């Protein structure tokens, strides 16, 4: 199998493209195939720093792990990080290059298209198979002229496309048919078939619909993936926050530990909390109402792509007052840490200049043009910690006890390090301290291994693909490209 490739598209955002891509990567890797993930253009506030210091989408880092390889900038050459409804930071090959609105972004299209195709070309020379993930839906026809992530990529690189639909949302057959029918004939030629995702119920009740969609479109349904709880690691869209994060195992002690995470409008790297949610007896919920702090043992102020704007939102929502008055444990990560300081000076991200912080930590933050992208290491609670940093704000700590690169004052901790809670020894020690300070009879489970848990979930994705998809048909697509398929009327 040489230089094969496949594009996984979706009927909507959060249809399951990322997990299906990861599952195919894990399935192929277990067969001994040298496989790599690729997403030409990703819009996400969940990102990761590679060993080479490049910033890419967190989902692509997870997919690289599924493939058994190190993440690299080529796997996500274009990353868009929205800072408002109209402007986004453009990260090109792992480095921020511009902050643009929609019209300014259009002027970069030729450069971005060339960069994406060159990155894909390098991966195809290095690996046997590249599994590409689309963005949003290929049926976003208003965006088709400048598309470089869906059918624009498929056409340019000759890729077969499978379309994933989320049946749990309803309307999956209409979404499949409509996705194909909205495309022009040349685009339709690359749509090879469909995958039904998140199915719960009796398969025999679904079969007539599967037969009919195949007859109506002339395209195969490659399989039906059942609903499987717990596959929320490293998602890229905040839509996935709804209704997730519940404990899967009983607490090790007599009580649970309740964590309230502030759901900021521009929340970033909320994957930092995945390790807490995986801990037995820890209940993590995302909140927007100060009332929900009342029974929380720990409040987390997470990262933000727009620190000053989200700080203003905290004040408008009443959450700022609740945070300022909180006596119990409080943790700020990256943007959240910056908000907890005394002062923020920002002429870069928001242009607001000097802004008063929440005053919970003796810290002054000043934003610089250069973004810090790093993979730091340190210790806390006597435990080793490996993490990563992604921020423009530089924090000057003027007091308190050292805590990673930040500080701690009483029940308030702050750090710019993402991923610190994935370190098992540190996480257990931190949670034990939080539980004692909150007066909870909670004991962290000594055997929780987050890295192993992530591997188990990636294996579960590989199992889903192997057991529920027509893998022989997928191999034919990867090896031979799009099959001959009919054109539907537009």
From TrEMBL:
<dbReference type="InterPro" id="IPR011698">
    <property type="entry name" value="GATase_3"/>
</dbReference>
<protein>
    <recommendedName>
        <fullName>Cobyric acid synthase</fullName>
    </recommendedName>
</protein>
<feature type="domain" description="CobB/CobQ-like glutamine amidotransferase">
    <location>
        <begin position="258"/>
        <end position="425"/>
    </location>
</feature>
<dbReference type="InterPro" id="IPR004459">
    <property type="entry name" value="CobQ_synth"/>
</dbReference>
<feature type="active site">
    <location>
        <position position="418"/>
    </location>
</feature>
<comment type="similarity">
    <text>Belongs to the CobB/CobQ family. CobQ subfamily.</text>
</comment>
<feature type="active site" description="Nucleophile">
    <location>
        <position position="334"/>
    </location>
</feature>
<feature type="domain" description="CobQ/CobB/MinD/ParA nucleotide binding">
    <location>
        <begin position="7"/>
        <end position="231"/>
    </location>
</feature>
<dbReference type="Pfam" id="PF07685">
    <property type="entry name" value="GATase_3"/>
</dbReference>
<keyword id="KW-0169">Cobalamin biosynthesis</keyword>
<dbReference type="InterPro" id="IPR047045">
    <property type="entry name" value="CobQ_N"/>
</dbReference>
<comment type="pathway">
    <text>Cofactor biosynthesis; adenosylcobalamin biosynthesis.</text>
</comment>
<dbReference type="InterPro" id="IPR027417">
    <property type="entry name" value="P-loop_NTPase"/>
</dbReference>
<keyword id="KW-0315">Glutamine amidotransferase</keyword>
<comment type="function">
    <text>Catalyzes amidations at positions B, D, E, and G on adenosylcobyrinic A,C-diamide. NH(2) groups are provided by glutamine, and one molecule of ATP is hydrogenolyzed for each amidation.</text>
</comment>
<dbReference type="Pfam" id="PF01656">
    <property type="entry name" value="CbiA"/>
</dbReference>
<dbReference type="InterPro" id="IPR002586">
    <property type="entry name" value="CobQ/CobB/MinD/ParA_Nub-bd_dom"/>
</dbReference>
<dbReference type="InterPro" id="IPR033949">
    <property type="entry name" value="CobQ_GATase1"/>
</dbReference>
<dbReference type="InterPro" id="IPR029062">
    <property type="entry name" value="Class_I_gatase-like"/>
</dbReference>
